[in-house]
Amino acid sequence: MIGGYVRLGLSSEGVALFREMQVAGVVPDEVTMVCFLSACIDLGALELGKWLEAYIERENVSKSDVLWNALIDMFAKCGDVDKALSLFRKKSQWNIVSWTSVIDGDKSHSEYKIIYKMVDDIGKEIRRAGYAASTSEVLLDIDEENKEGAVNRHREKLAIAFSLMNTPPGTPIRIVKNLRVCEDCHSATKFISKTYKREILFRDRNRFHRFIDGVCSCKDFW
Question: Any idea what DSSP says for residue 93?
């Protein structure tokens, strides 16, 4: 019901209903908490979102990817990007949805500029190693240079750049995506694994990919 209120633009009513549940001693499930966080985003109610996070920690609620992403999304969109990034870093694997939640927050945050620069630096390094952008899957009617720019900003590359910046050298990088990895990102990840000497574990919609020293476990068939 809370989700219904939010979808109808009645987020205040949704929050009020959640409070009634608390007074009545009803324990919220994950779906209810995610809907409550959506209401917080709609209302810009950062303090309410913080309260729910404290409740989750106090009650030792197990955070699934869905709930974790909802928390990251709430903090990012309610203006506390530092907290969103902090939660993002605590995850054991980098999830594309999580990354999207962070990057769709306050894009003026200084770390975004650093990440984009890192992506560009990675591109230069792997080009020196022989990488060439594959733009065959870009269907937009734009010139080749802009197509290369488009694939260079795919979420997978942003997530890998963020991981390279925030994990010790040699640490495996884990990424989860609910769509099939594109040809260009697959090729780039092979070069990144070799250039930066990282094992990169990537789960997309179809399979697990394990990139080591420029080779993927899928043998380029996915």
Answer: S
